[in-house]
Amino acid sequence: MTDIKIEEKWQRKWQEAGIFHSDPNNKKKIYVTVAYPYPSGAMHIGHGRTYTVPDVYARFKRMQGYNVLFPMGWHVTGAPVVGIAKRIKRRDQWTMDIYKNIHKVPEEELEKFIDPEYIVEYFSREYHDVMTRMGYTIDWRREFKTLDPHYQKFIEWQFRKLKEKDLVRIGEHPVKYCPECENPVGDHDLLEGEGVGINELTLVKFELDGEYLVAATFRPETLFGATNLWLNPDSEYIKINVNNKNWIIAKEAYSNILNQKKDILKVSDVNASELIGKHVKNPLTGDKHIILPASFVDPEYATGVVYSVPGHAPADLIALLDLKNDDKQLEKYSIKDQVLGIQAIGIIKLEGFSNVPAKDMIDRYNVVNQNDINLKEATNELYKLEHAKGVMDKDTGVYRGLGVSEARDEIIKLLTNEGKGDILFEFAERPVICRCGTKCVVKILNDQWFLKYSDERWKEVTYQCLDDMNIIPEEVRANFKYYIGWLQDWACSRRIGLGTKLPWNKDWLIEPLSDSTIYMAYYTIAKYMKDINPEDLNDQFFDEIFLGLKFSVAPTHGINPELTNEMKDEFNYWYPLNWRLSAKDLVGNHLSFHIFHHSAIFPQEKWPRGIVVFGMGLLEGHKMSSSKGNIVMLEDAIKTYGSDVIRLFLMSSAEPWQDFDWRENEVKGISKRLEWFLEFSQRVEKIYGSEIIVEDHETLPKVKKSINKWMLAQVNMRIMDATKAMEGFQTRKALQEAFFLFKKDIDHFFFRIEHETEDAVAMGEIAEVLVYILGVWIRLMVPFVPHGCEELWERYGGHELVSTKMWPEHYQDPKDEIIQKGEEIVHGLSQDINEIKKVINIKPTKIHVYVAPEWKWKLFDIANNIGKPDIGKIMQEAIKQNVHDNKKEIAEFAKKIGKEMTKIKYLGMIDEYSVLNNSIEFLSGEADAEVIIYDKPTYDPQGKSRNAMPYKPAIYIE
Fold it and tell me: What are the φ and ψ backbone dihedral angles of 609, each rounded to 5 degrees?
């Protein structure tokens, strides 16, 4: 089942038959896309999950009779490969090791990696090959790279459209920036720091002998509660001149500030230790504050200067307490008396907290020192509470009574307007490292181009688009709403890298996320591009194709009108896009941009219809990382296990939106379970006794035996539940139904028919059922393990590729539930008999079974109609209907009904007598004794029949 040669055989046959080439026809269509990969390294197992989910869905919908388009392209825009090429060129050992040992690039190929375009060419070929080996149903005729000149014309058209709508502007903005590359960087350009945001901090200037120690803060309103400043005496500090004022900051913070402030000059080095014990002036209150030593101050973060508010900052309070107990430090700097005299000052009122909320929070989180892992959580929690509910209290002057957030805004204005403060942008987390290996900074770019995601009209139409979309899982919709509202203007251009130049300013390149928003439309016409001169593609052409615009004058694009109409028809057939699949960490950028851009450019009827969000991938419980070597390459996994095993494991481990964990032992277990298929087919072959032609057994066989009816009902249920799960992208649940639970049903069926192997007539009927099941099971499993299914289909007489066969259909038959309940009764009775045998520890000679009399069923019907176990109403209605002559028995049974009705799913009366009689051989064989079924208690020496309940017969053992 997992033989690589078998998989390659079917991959060739699929390609030769062209069954995944999707062209417009008279069928209903499904158009599904997944984020195209950035081919800067080999595919790993995380990619395997990303691209297997849409393939499983595409195969499923194709078998349902839909015309399905699943295309693929290569995202090669941006600076990552440029950084890689630079590191390869300078023979960076770390980079060389990764590409030799992790990505397994041959030495002769690695030498060519000094060319960034060769890197993407090399890995896009490898991706194509591995995707083919995974059995993906991709229409490769539509393959393209984002460097293709045809695609670049498409991107230019897109950006001109946005500019026409006043959705692009030029301005000043903080961006992540690589000093080495001299270029803004996005998440795709980073080795570390992906997803890290940029925070706005307030700089506060504390005067010191005519110069300024400049501290950075999120909370300038807490200046009223400041008690001291912190410096790290083990770090280097410098004096810089900013606007003719001398600032003292950490040396390592200089490069960040240098990229944000103009006319900065370095003046001199500063010995931080010599500043300890000196005093600075608070610019807001005029109070004097002592400078104290603190090893926790990070010289790389902000300015490397921190002012302390121990009343409202748990980190400051615990640091102050630690310093008070540090005699060595106190003596070294001669600051003992001053430090011991510092008391926390409370200036923010927060309901449920004392005058020193930081102390309350430290106690609540049991923080014991500065290294306590709970300190960060305690700090964040208090900051959130004070921001949301805090009110400025005494000793805060004109700000008393204001909410914290309002006071903060007012104080920032005051500090900046009066020259007592400034603004600094800083990464929310560090490190942030470019793929070239350089630490990034936050830089203010003055002539940067931005997409105006802040535009309220654009947001409004984007919300409208979102409202009309299916989002899986649905709870992620709230995330989209948040990010659409939260997003502000996005820097959409870069100076260096690969990509499309901004059409109105060729000095800039369009950055990777900005050129990847509506490329799903381009897929629809990509297959035509090889025969078209890219210079013939202009805005009028794209307006005709994608917007349906008509022009009164002759077309200026020079493309044959018939070909133009064919492309227009192709686009209109496939669009709107049915499903877009991508990772959950892209909700806040790519996926939201996808909605923004479609809603801005396309008419409403072409807006995307759905998004599926993926979880992340783990390896043995740890986050996957190519740079850290914690990765399994997909090609290696294929060689070890085969594609079908990988597909089966990835789909069985978690739903698409959940995180999955690749665990070697579990993968090996899945490999063994795949052998179920082969074992089952061989068993069916043996029972059937002659050549099997599965296509001759696709209709439901007519059967008489209860167990055969039950098995067919189970098959129908599994088809129904797997289909429903697949429609909702619940690939794990679908596989549970179609494989694991189906296997459980089959095992039970074989268990039940063991006693009929000598009955030729019975086995004939069973054989028909099994061959029908074989055909159904193969087709149900095609989306998950297509290679093995093709092999089995061919082995058992299938004349066509099973990938092109119809998905099994379920039927609505209320009798199925009755049949299933009947088998439940048989199985439950067998278990009850064996339990009683264990208790009495005597080998029985006869087992007498009594089914419930008709009047008990009528009482159950009455109770079911009433809806609640109301004994009075049940009695009243039973007497009214005269269901039974003995009112005492009615009353006793009515009391039991109350408990029983809550335990069972009542389906109405079942002919238990016939059901059990049809299973007499099984029951007798399991009990190892003669079993006698009674519809009336003609023999009941101990009166056991009175215990019989609907769905639960009574038992008497002799």
Answer: -100, -20
